[in-house]
Design a protein that fits this description.
The protein is α+β, with helices and mostly antiparallel strands. The protein has a six-stranded mixed sheet, sandwiched between helices. Strands 13-12-11-14-20 form a five-stranded antiparallel sheet.
């Protein structure tokens, strides 16, 4: 399996809109890499550039040392699964799984082609792995959304492509279906030693699936690394906001005399001086004393919201943290100083490296 190397890759559309600013990125072979970002951030553009469905304006794409940015999609040895259904309505499930392999076989002028029996065996194996073996005679309109996604994944699987590009594969699926399909994707990736590049706007999906993640914003890679690295040490305010649900608390204030002050109530030790932004993940905010934690002030509870087995408590001014039961009135707020994030007020870049 090859590494995917993008070097100064850029995409500008005919209307001069920039889809992707110059980007350099390496996706190692056998990894599950998630491209995360809001709509319009450039993640689907980047996926389409790797697939060959878009042509880069500048830069190069290599699979190991092999340049592929000038190759047609079918010459790249990839499987691309789009967000929207690409199934043929006049074919049943078996025919839809076969079709990609049939097209590939038709292009094999000098290479050995698979016989019909071998193709049937691959289709049966893929259908069994993806739990659609009992749907092979059905047409696409007779399938649920999750079953249609599985058919598209089975189409990729029969081709034995070492690289899969998945554009929002779990979008518009209800939670149980999305969870099951995400587990299946992990099993497929490990079982067949695939390199998967997966596009999503959902940070929880990225945390659950990715070996490494790249966060995009406005056509730029803002940060890449393991999900734990990006979550625990966001490189700037934008990364902090987009990676994690519930979102990070961001509080503007002034630091002087080794103390950060904000909103006439919050006081916390700070190693930086001048205008700064304090970032605190909700799970690092507590409302009862903790060993090793620092009291930052007293404030009024304005809302309680149940999330799983915990309560997300909002206190003035819009600071959120977790408690085991609903709170009311004025409460003390505590934080772990080692888990605070400091950003420059002017640029938003991380200060505590």
């Amino acid at each position: 399996m090859p590494n995917i190397r993008l070097t100064d890759i850029r995409k500008t559309f005919p209307n001069r809109a920039v889809g992707l600013h110059p980007t350099t990125l390496t996706i190692t072979n056998g990894s599950y890499f998630v491209l995360l970002g809001p709509s319009g951030s450039g993640k689907s553009t980047l996926l389409r550039l790797i697939s060959g469905l878009e042509t880069p304006t500048n830069g190069s794409i290599h699979f190991d040392e092999r340049p592929i940015h000038n190759l047609a999609p079918h010459e790249r040895g990839i499987a691309y699964v789009p967000q929207r259904s690409s199934l043929y309505p006049d074919r049943d499930v078996r025919g839809n799984i076969r079709v990609g392999l049939e097209f590939e076989q038709a292009r094999r002028l000098r290479r050995k082609r698979l016989c019909g029996q071998e193709i049937d065996a691959r289709v049966a194996e893929a259908a069994s792995i993806l739990n659609i073996a009992d749907r092979l005679e059905r047409r696409p309109h007779e399938l649920s959304g999750g079953e249609q996604r599985r058919v598209m994944l089975a189409r990729a699987l029969v081709r034995r492509a070492p690289i899969w590009l998945l554009d929002e594969p779990l979008a518009q699926l209800d939670s149980p279906l999305a969870e099951k399909l995400s587990r299946d994707l992990h099993l497929l990736q490990r079982g067949f030693a695939l390199t998967i590049v997966h596009v999503t706007h959902d940070p929880n999906e990225a945390m659950a699936l990715a070996d490494r993640v790249g966060l995009l914003g406005e056509g730029r890679i803002l940060q890449s690394g393991t999900p734990e690295e990006v979550y625990s040490r966001p490189g700037n305010r934008t990364v902090g906001l987009h990676f994690g649900r519930p979102a990070i608390n961001l509080i503007e204030g002034i630091s002087q005399d080794d103390e950060f002050r904000a909103e006439d109530w919050l006081r916390v030790p700070c190693p930086h001086r001048g205008p700064v932004t304090l970032g605190i993940r909700p799970e690092d905010v507590g409302f009862v004393p903790h060993d090793g934690h620092h009291p930052i002030g007293l404030c009024e509870v304005v809302d309680n919201q149940r999330l799983d087995s915990r309560i997300l408590v909002t206190v003035r001014p819009q600071l959120r943290g977790f408690a085991l039961e609903p709170l009311a009135g004025r409460v003390g707020v505590w934080v772990n100083p080692e888990r605070l994030h400091w950003f420059a007020a002017s640029t938003g870049e991380r200060l505590n490296r």
